[in-house]
Amino acid sequence: MNLLATGMQLAGIGLILTAADVFAVP
């Protein structure tokens, strides 16, 4: 697996979790 691809994947997961966290809090 490519290190860059892994970093982008982790960044995407972090972005999704952050967005979910923001939307979950009213």
Tally of DSSP β-strands: 0
The value of Rg in angstroms is 11 Å
Question: How big a fraction of the residues is strand?
Answer: under 5%
| Count of helical stretches | 1
Query: Major sheet: size, sense and barrel closure?
Result: none
State the domain count. Answer: 1
Helix residue percentage: over 70%
N-to-C SSE series? H
Class computed from helices, strands and strand pairing: mainly alpha
What is the typical, i.e. mean, pLDDT?
87
Name the quaternary structure: single chain
Distance between the termini: 38 Å
The global form is: rod-shaped
Low-confidence stretches: none
Describe what this molecule looks like in 3D.
The protein is mainly α. It has one domain (1-26). It contains one helix and no strands. The longest helix is centred in the middle third of the chain and has 22 residues, at 3-24. The chain starts with a helix and ends with a helix. The mean pLDDT is 87. This is TrkA-N domain-containing protein. It comes from Haloterrigena salina JCM 13891.
Keywords summarizing the entry:
85% helix; 26 residues; rod-shaped; mainly alpha; TrkA-N domain-containing protein
What's this entry about, in short?
The chain has 26 residues and is mainly alpha-helical.
